[in-house]
From TrEMBL, chain A:
Entries under Gene3D superfamilies matching the protein: 1.20.58.2050
Protein name, per record: DNA replication complex GINS protein PSF3
A Gene Ontology biological process term: multicellular organism growth
Keyword Nucleotide-binding: no
Location(s), subcellular: Nucleus
Lineage of producing organism: Eukaryota, Metazoa, Chordata, Craniata, Vertebrata
Naturally occurring in which organism (per UniProt): Pongo abelii (Sumatran orangutan)
Automatic annotation (TrEMBL), chain B:
Record-level GO BP terms: DNA strand elongation involved in mitotic DNA replication; inner cell mass cell proliferation
Species assigned in the record: Pongo abelii
Keywords, sorted A to Z: Chromosome, DNA replication, Nucleus
Role summary: Required for correct functioning of the GINS complex, a complex that plays an essential role in the initiation of DNA replication, and progression of DNA replication forks. GINS complex is a core component of CDC45-MCM-GINS (CMG) helicase, the molecular machine that unwinds template DNA during replication, and around which the replisome is built.
CDD domains recorded: GINS_A_psf1 (cd11710), GINS_B_Psf1 (cd21696)
Family indicated by similarity: Belongs to the GINS1/PSF1 family.
Keyword Disulfide bond: no
Subcellular localization, as worded in the UniProt entry: Chromosome; Nucleus
Main location: nucleus
Domain GINS subunit residues, every copy: 42-128
Protein name, entry field: DNA replication complex GINS protein PSF1
Domain DNA replication complex GINS protein PSF1 C-terminal: 144-195
Subunit structure: Component of the GINS complex which is a heterotetramer of GINS1, GINS2, GINS3 and GINS4. Forms a stable subcomplex with GINS4. GINS complex interacts with DNA primase in vitro. Component of the CMG helicase complex, a hexameric ring of related MCM2-7 subunits stabilized by CDC45 and the tetrameric GINS complex.
Length: 254, 196
């Protein structure tokens, strides 16, 4: 830990993310499933990135009628390509993204930007872990769940999901809170009692926010132990300096 | 997907262990700015087309690109700002003179910012405590004694003490020196504070 470096904290648990926070930027890069309500032309580069679960409605999408240079067979090919998986299409002329009603996975920042109350461009679906099924798992025993695998920003992402006005918002927020309450005791215990040992097993199943808490607990423990040993008044080279010295600089003059 | 390069910049900073300054990724930054320029131009032409031809189907696309532009901007600003926070920490941890290796990791503008910061800090410190000023980067931990025992960790050379005598700092030699003179060197890792 560097004593003088104070990074911008994450605001994801509150109403809005912090603009400058690196943690929040990483968190909002995670994807969630959306359903497009209208087509978005000229974004052909995106076809190469679509998830394998893409489908279209059976009715001919609104935009298809205007697709340039596609005859009938081309349309059928396109529809077939969209329903098969994995979806790796050959380079296309700049064409339509998200024919109306198709399912995509977009990052949170994009979904937030395109979302509005009337759902003109997108409507958002909840990721699995915030839905009913997983919520009951969390309420049964929060401690056994591997939150790192479930998307390493479980709490932050879940809190920001509440912006999308889903009817299940109240349940989601309750579930987030209760899960955290259930897990907190163990985090606090382990962080306060693991001194000078390898903690990777303890943090393996914690999400990013919990890992931050664990680290704070460890810092407190280390500071206290240092004080107990009488080392609190010892001037030390900061960790920053020690880390710089360990790295091998190819162009360092001596 | 847009904004991938910008995310790479962010991840690079996030990966650097707490507080360290990686090299300035000028190339990456340039690519992000080029992507922003391309997005902006595409949007401009689409907006003109939408306004003149009354084609409202382009609006979701314009919004999409606009979101990507905002995201790129956010990533670059956060990248630059976090680097400045790390550089500021360097002044407090290392002192005014940075090792050359670190200087190579900084862009010219960052170096200039560092110099300005140093100057502001120095002006502020001079304005405290009456005539001589007060060095607030000293005594980060409450001092217990005026003189301290130190051991040299690497060869440093001659070191002059207040009353004129100079001390030769050779590796592994031990000295009993005034605290305020050696604090800087201890923090830089040249000396080691020994507790009796």
């Amino acid at each position: 830990m560097s004593e003088a470096y104070f990074r911008v904290e994450s605001g994801a648990l509150g109403p809005e993310e912090n603009f400058l926070s690196l943690d929040d930027i990483l968190m909002s890069h995670e994807k969630l499933p959306v359903r497009t309500e209208t087509a978005m032309p000229r974004l052909g580069a995106f076809f190469l990135e679509r998830s394998a679960g893409a489908e279209t409605d059976n009715a001919v999408p609104q935009g298809l009628a205007l697709l340039p240079r596609l005859e009938c067979s081309g349309v059928i090919q396109l529809t077939a390509a969209l329903t098969s998986a994995p979806v790796i299409l050959p380079p296309q002329p700049p064409t339509w993204l998200g024919l109306q009603g198709s399912k995509l996975e977009l990052p949170l920042w994009l979904a937030k930007g395109l979302f509005d109350n009337k759902r003109r461009i997108l409507s958002v679906e909840l990721p699995k872990i915030y839905q009913e099924g997983w919520r009951t798992v969390f309420s049964a025993d929060p401690n056994v769940v591997d939150l790192h695998k479930m998307g390493p920003h479980f709490y932050g992402f879940g809190s920001q999901l509440l912006h999308f006005d889903s009817p299940e918002n109240a349940d989601i927020s309750q579930s987030l809170l209760q899960t955290f309450i259930g897990r907190f005791r163990r985090i606090m215990d382990s962080s306060q009692n693991a001194y000078n040992e390898d903690t990777s097993a303890l943090v393996a199943r914690l999400d990013e926010m919990e890992r931050g808490l664990f680290q704070i607990g460890q810092n407190g423990l280390n500071d206290f132990q240092c004080w107990e040993k009488g080392q609190a008044s010892q001037i030390t080279a900061s960790n920053l300096v020690q880390n710089y010295k360990k790295r091998k600089f190819t162009d360092m003059e001596d | 997907m847009f904004c991938e390069k910008a995310m790479e910049l962010i991840r690079e900073l996030h990966r650097a262990p707490e507080g360290q300054l990686p090299a300035f990724n000028e190339d990456g930054l340039r690519q992000v700015l080029e992507e922003m320029k391309a997005l902006y131009e595409q949007n401009q032409s689409d907006v003109n087309e939408a306004k003149s031809g009354g084609r409202s189907y382009l609006i979701p696309t314009i919004k999409f690109r606009h979101c990507s532009l905002l995201r790129n901007r956010r990533c670059t600003v956060a990248y630059l700002y976090d680097r400045l926070l790390r550089i500021r920490a360097l002044r407090w941890e290392y002192g005014s003179v940075l090792p050359n290796a670190l200087r190579f990791h900084m862009a010219a503008e960052e170096m200039e910012w560092f110099n300005n910061y140093k100057r502001s800090l120095a002006t502020y410190m001079r304005s405290l405590g009456g005539d001589e000023g007060l060095d607030i980067t000293q005594d980060m931990k409450p001092p217990k004694s005026l003189y301290i025992e130190v051991r040299c960790l690497k060869d440093y050379g001659e070191f002059e003490v207040d009353d004129g005598t100079s001390v030769l700092l050779k590796k592994n030699s031990q000295h009993f020196l005034p605290r305020w003179k050696c604090e800087q060197l201890i923090r830089q890792g040249v000396l080691e504070h020994i507790l009796s």
